[in-house]
Amino acid sequence: MTVRVRGIYTTALTAAVEEIVQPSSAIEDRFDEEFSMGPAAVRIETTDDRQGVTVHGRSDDVADVVTDLCGLALDSFAWRASLPRGGVFAGEVVDTLGSGALVSCLPDESNPDPILDDDPLPFAGGTTGFLPYSNTDDRVDEGDRLRVQVVETRPPWSDGRPVLDTDIHVAGGLATLHRGGRRSSNGPELADLLPEDPPEGWGIDWSPIADHADLDDLGAVIDALGERAGALDDELSDTADPDGVAPQAYARDEATCWLWFGRESRFALDDRRRSVTTTMPGHHRIKAGTNTASTAVDFVEGVCGDLGSDPEEFPFAVVTEQFGPREGDRVGIGHGKPDGRLIDLGPAEVTKRTEDGQVTVRREISSQGSYDALGTDREPGDAAVTKVKEGRWWYPTVYRGEDGESKGTYVNICTPVEVFPNEIRYVDLHIDVIKRPGGTTEIVDEDELAAAVEAGTISEALAEKARTVANAVENAF
């Protein structure tokens, strides 16, 4: 299996993969070995928000990568895209917006076979994509049916939808084949010497990185892309017109998966990276915060020697003082769900921060109703005071009325909390502990945790950890 990796997790993942291809210049400098520029069976890319990675490629190979990464720590989560990159669909326009159209590509229940037979991944990301008007030559209106291809995916915790195009292509890092296109004139010098040509009816565009490949690697890339293009031609030649079958999948030959890394997973990746080069405690945890923090980490590791390896040595106070959040700042509360969604509970004001990693935030309540499980009234003017501690598997929120009287305490059981400059993040594990105003305590939502295990969004090992934490919190009350 050949793998191409990009983003802040590249060194750690390169250290764990047997055959890396198309490496960045930094990876070539860091590893004392020869790398091929040949085709990649799997592509791993850091998500735009740096919280995890996208894994794309042949289903069996993607399954191997996902299995490995899910084993990093209990707080690694993985989901499979219903609409994978490169997939071709008969879609139906269900809405038109200012810059593009929403296109339904699949009936909600129409998903391919799982790629992990013994532990099927849950599907995520939805079955509707976004078609920019710039990606189609024809005017589209609600009710239109057309053939589309997924050209960009979006992780389920983001607000975006997969991006669609009406042109068909096959991408492979060094080059992209376009159905109905022409051969590009800006390819590498060696391209003119290749005996291989794209299949009939396909044009080729070369990536700038192709200039660094030798003749054998360029030929191998064209062979691999040509094989995929030929297979796609065969599948599409026997498909019905979109008008009669949309929404429906025409071709999903490759798989796309997303992995969300929690705090413990990032520290496990630190260990992998440390086997190759100087890596400070919390390397990936800090880099996941902001691009500015990422640059600072590179500087520290470049000028310092041994920086330690114990997660307890993570310099929380220094990191938050430099990059935030500080007292008076406003942060979001990213309440992740095991099915891949992310709910923003903020904004909240940071009212206190301690050097040992505890941050207190306050939110104003503006809606009416009742507080879940507590059974007390929620009224405008109430305040929610939340205390989180970096790395802890739980956090309490105390609800108070305008008169200061407590309306109860809700303790959320979650993956280890991370306090980023603009957002507090974790994944909710469903089970919670409550303390009512009268002082009685109770563990709630155990049935939701059991349902999540049954659905495959939470592993049994993680569920057992959540139950253990909940019992400890209740006993502490």
Determine the N-to-C terminus distance: 51 Å
Number of helices: 11
Helix content: 10-25%
The Rg value, from CA coordinates, equals: 25 Å
Strand content: 25-35%
Structural class: alpha+beta
- Count of discrete structural domains: 2
Number of strands: 27
Shape: globular
Main β-sheet, spatial strand arrangement: 16-18-19-22-23-24-26
For the biggest sheet, the summary is: 7 strands, mixed, barrel
Low confidence ranges: none
Features:
seven-stranded mixed beta barrel; 24% helix; 11 helices; 477 residues; alpha+beta; FomD barrel-like fold
Notes on the structure:
The structure is a single chain. With 477 residues, the protein is an alpha+beta fold. The protein has two domains: 259 residues, no CATH class; 162 residues, FomD-like (FomD barrel-like fold, Beta Barrel). Helices cover 24% and strands 31% of the residues. The protein contains eleven helices and 27 strands. The strands form five sheets. Strands 16-18-19-22-23-24-26 form a seven-stranded mixed barrel. Strands 1-2-3-15-4-7 form a six-stranded mixed beta sheet. Strands 5, 6, 8, 9, 10 and 14 form a six-stranded antiparallel beta sheet that branches. The chain starts with a strand and ends with a helix. 43% of the residues are buried.
List the helices and strands and how they pair.
Blueprint: E1 3-6, H1 10-14, H2 25-30, E2 42-46, E3 52-58, H3 59-70, E4 76-81, E5 88-96, E6 100-104, E7 123-124, E8 128-132, E9 145-152, E10 163-165, E11 169-171, E12 175-179, E13 202-206, H4 215-237, H5 242-245, E14 248-251, E15 254-261, H6 263-274, H7 283-287, H8 291-303, H9 316-323, E16 330-336, E17 342-344, E18 348-353, E19 358-364, E20 369-370, E21 377-378, E22 383-389, E23 394-400, E24 406-414, E25 418-419, E26 423-435, E27 441-444, H10 446-455, H11 460-476
